Amino acid sequence: MKTRYSSLVHVKKNIMQKSERVLQSANSKLKSAQTALQLSFNSLNDIVTPQSGLMPEFLASRTLLDAGRTLIKHNEEWVAFTQEEIGHATLQLRLDTIEFEKYKYLETQEIKKILKKIKLQEAKDLDEVALMTYKNINKSETL
After folding, report:
1. How far is CA 24 from CA 28, 80, 93, 106, in A?
2. Span 44-84, pLDDT tens digits
3. Per the structure, how many domains does the chain have?
4. d(CA 27, CA 108)
5. 24 domain residue, yes or no
6. Whole-model pTM above 0.90?
């Protein structure tokens, strides 16, 4: 049944679904960031520091460790950023869901009102038909 809120409900539903997709995207980005962070920790653990040797070997090892730490820091920032994105997306989804539910409720109330009006009109029509039938029966009996 079409009401004045039907088009708004449709629009709000589309907005809510878009927010759901944004949240899903943010969740997949978080998984990717966490995987990258774990891989950077693993690669840092795989670096072997030389116990003896020439100075360039020690410097190369130190450079690798510094690069690994920098990568870990970058990945930690990425994880924090994606978690913040998820927080914003969750809040937006919550607000969009509330808006959708509000207009859905208004549409439902409008439909109930229309159905009540239709039932009342049908009852009046049935009463009128019954009254006309009753009058016709009484006229035919008196003749």
Report:
1. 6, 17, 11, 29
2. 888 888 888 888 888 988 999 999 999 999 999 999 999 99
3. 1
4. 33
5. yes
6. no
